[in-house]
Design goal:
432 residues, mainly beta, three-stranded antiparallel sheet, 3 helices, 8% helix, disordered N terminus
Length: 432
């Protein structure tokens, strides 16, 4: 259409020139020829039509330079409508000018100028970026930051990762054997890593805390930033032994001295021998009370590592020991209670023959003395340990002349009987 307008404008100028020259339009111009000329002009293309250069736009059918900080492609037609340029990136339209956005603000290129006023927007930093001089810059190495820092505001910082410290505004790895929590601000003041203190039963090897070897222990607090340390061997208490690098109690009936090293091989406890008055390999295997004793031996985990006893059996009164057995005394013998059945053989004591009898002992046999008659039989029953007796024999009656027993057979009695005889007057003597 613009091309057609230019053609018609040219033709009308020619007509006007013809009129000035006194030429008659009817005589000199043919409308059909004019139309044909227009068509030919239209077909001729745009090669001969002048357009605006790069970074120009059309204002009132004239090509004028774009405002500062804006651009436009070449080719705007000055014969057409007014055109606009486009503001550069990070510029907004203010009073038909492209004005640079403020610090930390941004706007995409393309706002038409001249045109309505526009506004710059906030610059929001991406993840692991921070604000420096109203611009988003990358975090230092070994530091992170969440997205969202506003570049129009003040400077921001990133945070060092775990086990990094701040040295001259850089995140520097902690020295061996030290640690630090994540979060130190960088840029920021210098920080320091803290020594790693090993826990209980750990030791330092190569600036790291390691578990103590089996059978060893260590107090908490070894500093992993310092030289290597060692764990201490576990020494078992009395009556303990080593089993798989651990101190475990001895079984009942066994004992052990203190000091077995749990960091070494397994050890064994010692069996406890059977106590007095008993026999057997050891307490664990079992102990049997000896003959003449009674009781029971049971293994225990505390000294003397067994309970119970084998106590001697005391013989009763009138018993004696024969081959560790309490045996009744033979008839005519006696013995006090208390002989030890577990001990050596003992004997009973002989009981002497009773009065009016003779013999070595009741057990050996007793015989009545002359003038006495009877039988002595040994028994096991006290208190005499015999039965029977030796009694006096009866004497034949007699008399003493001239005495108070002068009558024939006046004196009677038995063996041992004493009769006092008094002589008559005029007679002397006497007796019993």
């Amino acid at each position: 259409m613009q091309k057609e307008h230019r053609i018609w404008a040219s033709l009308w100028m020619l007509l006007a020139f013809g009129a000035l020259c006194g030429c008659s339009p009817d005589a000199s111009f043919d409308r059909d020829r004019i139309d044909a000329s227009i068509d030919a002009e239209m077909d001729a293309g745009d090669a001969d039509i002048p357009t605006c250069a790069e970074n120009e736009h059309v204002v009132d059918n004239a090509c004028v330079a774009c405002p500062i900080n804006s651009t436009n492609a070449e080719g705007d037609d000055p014969a057409g409508d007014n055109t606009a340029c486009e503001c550069d990136p990070d510029h907004s339209v203010v009073d038909n000018e492209c004005v640079m956005c403020g610090p930390g603000l941004m706007r995409p290129a393309g706002d038409p100028v001249p045109g309505d006023d526009t506004m710059c927007g906030e610059t929001i930093c991406e993840a692991n970026e921070r604000v420096q001089d109203n611009a988003c810059v990358m975090c230092p190495m070994n530091a992170t930051n969440m997205m969202g820092d506003d570049a129009s505001m003040g400077d921001t910082s990133c945070e060092c990762e775990e086990n990094f410290q701040v040295v001259d505004n850089a995140c520097v790895s902690c020295p061996a054997g030290t640690t630090r929590m994540a979060g130190d601000a960088v840029p920021g003041s210098n920080t320091m890593c803290e020594p790693t203190l090993c826990m209980e039963n750990q030791f330092v090897m190569g600036n790291a805390c390691q578990l103590c070897p089996a059978g060893t222990t260590n107090a908490a607090g070894d500093d992993a930033s310092m030289e290597d340390t060692m764990c201490d061997a576990t020494l078992c208490a009395p009556d303990q032994r080593v089993s798989s690098n651990a101190c475990v109690p001895c079984m009942a009936g066994q004992s052990n001295v203190m000091g077995d090293d749990a960091s070494g091989g397994d050890t064994m406890c010692d069996p406890v021998a059977c106590p007095v008055n008993s026999t057997g390999t050891d307490v664990v295997s079992g102990c049997t009370c000896n003959a003449g004793t009674t009781g029971m031996i049971t293994p225990s985990t505390t000294a003397p590592y067994y309970t119970g006893t084998c106590a001697a059996v005391p013989c009763a009164a009138n018993e004696y020991v024969s081959s560790n057995t309490c045996t009744a005394c033979p008839p005519g013998t006696t013995n006090a209670a208390g002989d030890d059945e577990s001990g050596v053989d003992t004997t009973c004591d002989d009981v002497s023959c009773p009065s009016n009898s003779t013999g070595a002992s009741l057990a050996a046999g007793c015989t009545c003395v002359p003038g006495y008659g009877g039988t002595i039989t040994a028994t096991t029953t006290g208190p005499d340990y015999y039965t029977g007796s030796c009694t006096a024999n009866a004497c034949t009656g007699t008399e003493v002349a001239n005495s108070d027993f002068a009558t024939a057979g006046a004196i009677t009695g038995s063996t041992g009987t004493v009769v006092t005889v008094t002589c008559n007057a005029g007679f002397s003597g006497g007796g019993a």
